[in-house]
Amino acid sequence: MRYRIPFVGVGVPATLAIALLLGGLSAAPVVTMAESVKAKSYCYDIAVRDKPGSLPPRPDTKGKAYWMAPGSVRAEMTSREWKGPEPKQVDIYPAGKPGIHIFHPRKTFWQLPIRQIDPMSVGLEKIEELGKFISRAQRQLGTMQINGKNAQGFAIDHQEIYPQAQPGTMEVWLDAETNLPVLIRSETRLSGTRTTIEEKTNIQWNIDLDAKLFDPTPPEGYTDATPRALSTEEQVAQVIEGLRIYAKLNGGQYPATSGPW
């Protein structure tokens, strides 16, 4: 399964922070939040898993994401069954330029169009803005130490941030000095039988990142597997074939027609 951006391991301090978050907090004074610091770069670890009981079950994934102004992105994702030394797949989008998807198990790559920001998700450009939503939170979570920083947490409905977002809740922990997130945990209801839990941990802000991280040059020896753009006639043929399959499975034609396709 390919995860878009849109991320390896989680350090001990971040793991402890998550444990404290899930286990509840004792009462603590509210931290006075500073004005948000503008981000020039950041990275974080990410882990994605299904909530117990979700069907059909899917493998857990984990990875790392990088962002550098004015908008270059790199996301590395892997899964438990992948044993290679590198991430299972990598997406790279230089700011304002076409990107690349690299799939290491098959030694293939795809050329990608210029990245469009998804307005219905908390993407890489959006997480630095989360601090402004603390006043609209459904719950205040108190304070705790995360990676040596004093942090204040709050819980908020996804649709308070993006009205078109899928239903779910987000727990955000903000650095009291910068008002930037240091831990984010989201629970998203994808359907009646599936809820996904995503954790962004070990968030590091305004760090020095090597520009080579965002170089979309294909690895040497990898095969170009970029899907070919279909002609209008080919697209129509695929739609017709899909409707034929639909009709076959549903005991009739769809949509109604006066003659055969």
Question: What is the string of helix and strand elements?
Answer: HEEEEEEEEHEEEEH
The DSSP helix count reads: 3
Here the CATH topology of the largest domain equals outer membrane lipoprotein receptor (LolB), chain A
User: What is Rg?
Assistant: 22 Å
Low-pLDDT segments: 1-33, 256-261
Instruction: Count all strands and give the number.
Output: 12
The share of residues in extended strands comes to: 25-35%
Per the principal axes of the C-alpha atoms, what is the gross shape? globular
The percentage helix is: 10-25%
* Overall CATH class of the largest domain: Mainly Beta
Q: Describe the oligomeric state of these chains in a short phrase.
A: single chain
How many separate domains? 2
Mean pLDDT: 79
Spatial strand sequence of the major β-sheet: 7-8-9-10-11-1-2-3-4-5-6-12
Give keywords:
261 residues, mainly beta, outer membrane lipoprotein receptor (LolB), chain A, 2 domains, twelve-stranded mixed β-sheet, 3 helices, 12 strands, globular, disordered N terminus
Would you kindly provide a written description of the structure presented here, covering whatever features stand out?
The chain has three helices and twelve strands; from the N terminus they run H-E-E-E-E-E-E-E-E-H-E-E-E-E-H. With 261 residues, it is mainly beta. The protein folds into two domains: 12-227, Lipoprotein localisation LolA/LolB/LppX (outer membrane lipoprotein receptor (LolB), chain A), CATH 2.50.20.10; 230-261. It has a twelve-stranded mixed beta sheet with strand order 7-8-9-10-11-1-2-3-4-5-6-12. It is globular and about 60 Å long. Mean pLDDT is 79; it is low at 1-33 and 256-261.
